[in-house]
Amino acid sequence: MEKVKIDSIDAKLISLLLKDARTKTKDLAQVCGISSTAVGNRLAKLKSKGVITGSALVVSMSEIGYMFPASISIESIKQEDSKKIISFIEKSSGIFYFSFSFGKYDMQIFLISRTTNDIQNLKKLIMNRMHCRISVDLWETLFPNFENIMIDGALNG
Amino acid sequence: MANLDEVNLNIISLLSKDAQTPFYKIAEQLGISPRTVELRFRKLVEKRIIIGSTIRIDIGKIGFVGKSYIHITTSQDANKSLLNEQLKKINGIFLTVEIIGNYDILALLAVKDLASTFKVIEHIRKLPNVEKVDVSFVNDTIYPMSRWVNKQMPLKRTRNQRCSF
After folding, report:
1. Average pLDDT over residues A91-112
2. Is B12 touching A (CB cutoff 8 A)?
3. Whether A51 contacts chain B with CB within 8 A
């Protein structure tokens, strides 16, 4: 993938917006020591180059009834089953992330549900549809702090 | 659990599509005043129903090739939260969570290259009370990982429940 060159002001803008996507342009300009127009230009460039791809709202899931975050890791998925599982996953609710991986597991699914039964049901559904090994882990915290993502560390590292 | 009315649900659902939508645009769509939207939003933040907002970035564009899931098994008498804190300090680890099931801790690592990843995993293996480390790699670089939330979970009201995704 082509790499986009970003300077320290871009990095600062990104880390400020990661903490609060609704930060006003005026405030961004002040913290970075550049003009509001320059902030607008830089953000437009970061968007057009595909560094910033969108925004997300962080909502307390427990407040709206989703009490059980969990991850499902799947081992030994057969090639022909992988398409089946995508179409199935796209239909089920509560899944907030999934991806294929290589290494110990072939696929990771992160979900959040109202009851532990929902997780159990999803596991059964997947197992009925294809031959694979599944392990389920319940998450201890209700929702990871995405607002605390350590992009600063990641950027400097 | 919070009891959310129609207006609050609509505000949350519009902001879920784009967290940077200006209040006046939300007001236009819902047929209420911008001031009301702002007050409602502030209330939701005060009550910690809305925790905040963040941008999605593609870390692939700034030098990362993907991320890796590190599933950790600890020894029986381990202090999990202490280990959690130690893991959080490692450069590149952007999420750690205590879990119950096959493993005890899940950590997510932004992967730059093989050598540095190798080093981090070796470092984790040597931490006290770490018994087993299982690693999987993903070439997906969108950050944070909640890219499915918006598509997958439209907020809507159902008869039996107060609100549901």
Report:
1. 81
2. yes
3. yes
Every domain of chain B and the residues it spans: 6-53, 57-143
Fold of A62-138: Alpha-Beta Plaits (3.30.70)
Nearest by CB to residue A97, choosing from B20, B60, B147, is B147
Amino acid at A40: G
Low-confidence stretches of chain B (pLDDT beneath 50): 146-165
Domain boundaries along the sequence of chain A: 8-55, 62-138
CA distance A127 to A131: 6
How far apart, in Å, are the Cα atoms of B94 and each of A73, A109, A144, B80, B129?
Answer: 19, 18, 10, 17, 21
Q: What is the pLDDT of residues B50-72, one digit of tens each?
A: 888 888 888 888 888 888 899 99
Tens digits of per-residue pLDDT, B27-40?
999 999 999 999 99
Smallest Cβ–Cβ distance between B146 and the set A17, A60, A96 belongs to A96
CATH code: domain A8-55 is 1.10.10.10
Kindly report the pTM of this predicted structure. 0.75
Class of domain B57-143: alpha beta
What per-residue confidence (pLDDT) applies to A141? 66
Structure tokens at A157: 């590292």
